[in-house]
Every structure is written in C-alpha cells, then in structure tokens.
Write a structure and sequence with these properties.
seven-stranded mixed beta sheet; six-stranded mixed beta sheet; globular; 396 residues; 24% strand; single chain
Length: 396
Amino acid sequence: MPRAVVIGGGIGGLTSAIALRGKGWDVTVLERAPKIDPVGSGLAIAANALKALDTIGLGDPIREFSKIQGQVGLRRSDGRWLTHTTPDAADARYGDSVVVMLRATLMEVLVDALRKGELRLGVSVSGVDAGSGVVRTDEGDLHADLVVAADGIHSKTRQTLFPRHPGPTYSGVTAWRGLVPRGDLDIRSTESWGKGLVFGVTLLAGDTVYVYATDVLPAGTVFRDEREELVRRFGDWHEPIPTLLRAADPADVIRNDVYYFDTPLPAFHRGKVALVGDAAHAMTPNLGQGACQAIEDAVVLAHHAGQWRDGSGGGVAEDLLAGYTADRLERTSKVVRQSMSICRVTKVRNPVAVWLRDLGVSVASRMMPDLMLRSMDEVLRWRPPTATTTVVADRS
C-alpha cells in the first residue's frame, strides 16, 4: 500500500487524507498544534465543494447543516438592494445552493472521518526532501511515496520547493469576523458595500449569526478594541448591522490582514510533493472560495494519485502530479484573480466612484436579473474528475 504524509491538519490537509485513503493510500496527517483549533468563525461550502465532498461520502452530511434561506444578495450601506437572488435559483442552476457553517463544525466532520492513528497532533515538520519523499519531524523521519503540503499561506514547504516565488501579497484590506446570537432579529444573508467598507451577515445553525467586515488599512494596524472599531465604522449602517454589533461579545471578534498570491506558482508539485489549499493559491475571501478550492484540490489530487502504480520500487510518478498541476493551476489562478478583482471594487472610497460602482451593479442587475449567479458560473459549475463515492465511516 502506498504511503502519503500530509503536512497540516486544516481543511485541505484533512480532506486530502480522507480522499487519498479512499484511493487505497495509507495516510498520516501531521499537525504541529496539540489540538485541532480552527482559526476563523464561519465559512460557506458552495456547490462546487459539495460535489467534491460527494466523492468522499461527506457531501450529504455537510448538506444537513444550515443552507442559506430567503433572498440573498448585495446591498448599499443604507440597505437598498443592488442585486439579489435566491438559494432556489442557485440550486436550479448548479444542482446545489450554499451551506454555511462554523469552520469548527466542518473540521469536526473531517476529523471524525479519519481513522484512529491517521492524525498525529503536536508534531512539527522541520523539512521535506521532494526527491526522496522524506519528511523530517521532531519525532524522527517519515518516508512517503507522496507528501501533501497543506501547511497554509506561509507554507515552509512551498518556500523550499519554490524559493524564488515572492509569496503572499497584502491585498490592502483587513478583515473582521465574529459570531453573534440572533435573538429575535430577522436575518438575511447579505453583503453590504460602502466607501471602502464591506459588511456581511449570514445565519448559521443554532440561531448564531456569522458577521464579517473589511476596511482599507495599512498592514499591521493594531486596535485596542476590535468591536468598538466595527461600531465606529458600521454603527450607522442599515439594520440589523448596528444591533448585531451592539450584541457582539468583543472576545468573539477576530481580525486579520488579508493576503493573497498576486503571482501564481509555476506548478503545484515538485518531486513527490504536492501543494494544496492556501499553500498553493492563497486568495481573498470575496468569492467565499478559499475552503472550497482546498477541497477541490484534495479530491483532484486523490484522483490522480489513485492511478499510482509502484512497479519498480519508485515513488509517485511525476506525470501523475503533473496531471494534478494541469487540472488545478489554471483554474485556481482564475479564482484568485476574480476574487481579488472584487476586492479592488470594494476598496473604492471616492464618493463619485462609489456612486458609479453601485449604479453599474444595479443597472446591470435589472438588465440581467440572473447576473449575480451568472458571474459565478465558471466557479460553481465545476465537477470533480470522478463521481465515484467512497465510504468513509469505517474508523477502525
């Protein structure tokens, strides 16, 4: 049985392990943290990622969580709609709508799908030899036929494989995220745009509201009270934004500067090592595709690795990982660019430019009522390379 070592216990790493095991691989996931502690609050699992999860038997369990309901779309800071659609329209167009859930919940589902002993916590990786597949850790060396580097946006593995790549670039915006009790508020899943500002609201399961916001700020800006900063920026926007911010616990609000890959990698593999998720193609959150693309990576990588044959004592054939790069590099680069294009539009501050932006979106939406969905066709109509479902419930 071929052996894969996965570096990183995030969404991309865990999904890769599950998908590879379904293709006959012995898998070990190395996570340097002593426990799985997801960073972030909520996330969206769109139609493309749900189809990917179907190939490892996890699509339907994820669909049981909170699907977006009612009218959804884009609004101005005063509440006026710029464009909108419905989950039913998305379902009809793509075969699925969007599941919104806590990042921690998705991680629990993925961890539960692993078998005993496949996840090793508290293990730090000090180096990888792409040619031999040796992974050096603080607990000794591991030998692998395939190494999956899912070690995040600041991936040391990526830096080793592609030392000349410039790495992540600051997008120019910082992002807040938080969870707020719903109370008796009428919540719709919307994103509102102002002068360089964005505020999003999404209802999760258990009457919890996921909120997120962005603003144009220099990288590394520090605030004493993140919730108060949100109130200062968004306290006079349309409801339920001010009410949600007043109800928010400051301890539940987190913020981080947003980085992305302005320069794509030349490949997503080298030797026996494949990169997935943010390690390969970090992107801004404007399309809600960061986790979705990592999930796609995992099942596509497993599809190619499933064709592995070790007839001469060698490792993963170079052409198999070249096939992975061929399937993923162009697609993810387009998603990164599309997401950053939206980010640039949200950064506009000049009042005239903001008015023209909003007018353009509103007019285009009236002329083309399905504009909001059509703009996502290339992303959401993706399908995995195989429809074969693998059962993952056996954790013996």
